[in-house]
Design a protein that fits this description.
The chain is of the alpha/beta class. Helix content is about 40%, strand content about 20%. The chain has eleven helices and eleven strands. The strands form two sheets. A seven-stranded mixed sheet has the order 3-2-1-4-5-10-11, with helices on both faces. A four-stranded parallel sheet has the order 7-8-6-9, sandwiched between helices. Strand 4, helix 4 and strand 5 form a beta-alpha-beta unit. The structure holds 6-O-phosphono-beta-D-fructofuranose. Catalyzes the phosphorylation of D-fructose 6-phosphate to fructose 1,6-bisphosphate by ATP, the first committing step of glycolysis.
Length: about 325
């Protein structure tokens, strides 16, 4: 057992619904085990500048249902430099903080890995990103809420698309990952889903659109923003091939990152939040806490941040079979 007395928690990178539930879980688990808990504001930027506050059970009351992050977040340039990380280390020492929980995605864990390597400091990570692009967890915190937001938006777009016999290209988030696109595409009955992990075969898509033309009034094509060409180019290409189609483009954007987290995200955040603090107390470090098949699992940062480039063929196959 380690002698950890004071821990700190921060959120970093793009915010994700459920981050507040994760902060709450870390703070309250720390208090449960008689630790002092600090919050670091604005991610690694706050660690570098010393924006560190003391947290108690009340400071995380009434936040489990709120989107965003009460600790705020940032993508820190200063923490990428050794000077920045040195300052951050000194600020942690000033508050006698002896362990850290970081909530974020691959950039967050890459920074944490460097920090552990240089200062031999215990850090645990929670998967907080809407992209679901981390290994070592079935789902990341925020993903379920984000895909439900997309589904809600696409259902509404489908109503107007159907009324006007239109084809909508809808761009969703996911810089390097098509997992938001794929799952929301299946659940909204999209005619095609374009994702960065798979090279777009325009001929096949056009042939399919043409073949299924008589069966449908509306058509929805979901494009991940990280796709080779993005929604605008895809919409132009379809228009070129089918001048008679009434094509519209809708970019959903940051609406996908906001809103109250779903039950799934709240439970996930709570379980991994408890797991992170218990892991630190057991002497763990340098690992992300995830849920695999319903069980809490610890995965080294180096493995968690390896991008998922192999997409489940079953999901892509389903889109094709069901878009007849
Ligand atoms: O990492 C989450 C994410 O929402 C990506 O899907 C998206 O590409 C990116 O963040 C957008 O980041 P920003 O809000 O900084 O533009």
């Amino acid at each position: 057992m380690s002698k950890i007395k004071n821990i700190a928690v921060l959120t970093s990178g793009g915010d994700a619904p459920g981050m507040n539930a994760a902060i709450r879980a870390v703070v309250r688990t720390g208090i449960y085990y008689n630790l002092n808990v600090f919050g670091i504001r604005r991610g690694y930027d706050g660690m570098v500048s010393g924006d560190i506050i003391s947290m108690d059970a009340k400071s995380v009351a009434n936040i489990i249902q709120r989107g965003g992050t009460i600790l705020k977040t940032a993508r820190s340039d200063e923490f990428r430099t050794i000077e920045g990380r040195q300052k951050a280390y000194e600020n942690l020492r000033k508050h006698e903080i002896d362990a850290l929980v970081v909530i974020g995605g691959d950039g967050t864990f890459t920074g944490a890995s460097k920090f552990i390597e240089e200062f031999d400091f215990p850090v645990m990570g929670l998967p907080g990103t809407i992209d679901n692009d981390l290994l070592g967890t079935d789902f990341t915190i925020g993903y379920d809420t984000a895909i439900n937001t997309v589904v809600d938006a696409v259902d509404k777009i489908r109503d107007t698309a159907e009324s006007h016999d239109r084809l909508f290209v809808i761009e969703v988030m996911g810089r390097d990952s098509g997992l938001i696109a794929l799952r929301s595409g299946i659940s909204t009955g999209a005619e095609a889903v374009l994702i960065p992990e798979i090279k777009v075969d325009y001929d096949a898509i056009m042939t399919r659109l043409d073949k299924t033309r008589k069966n449908k009034a509306s058509r929805i094509i979901i494009v991940a923003e990280g796709d080779q060409e993005g929604g605008m180019v895809v919409a132009d290409k379809i228009k070129e091939s089918f001048p008679s189609y009434d094509v519209r483009l809708s970019i959903l954007g940051h609406i996908q990152r906001g809103g109250s987290p779903t039950c799934m995200d709240r439970v996930l955040a709570s379980r991994v939040g408890v797991g992170a603090v218990e892991g630190l107390i057991e002497g763990r470090r340098g690992e992300m806490v995830g849920l695999i098949h319903g069980e809490v699992k610890y995965t080294p940062f180096s493995k968690a941040i390896k991008h998922i480039d192999k997409i489940d063929d079953n999901l892509t196959r389903i889109v094709e079979i069901l878009s007849l």
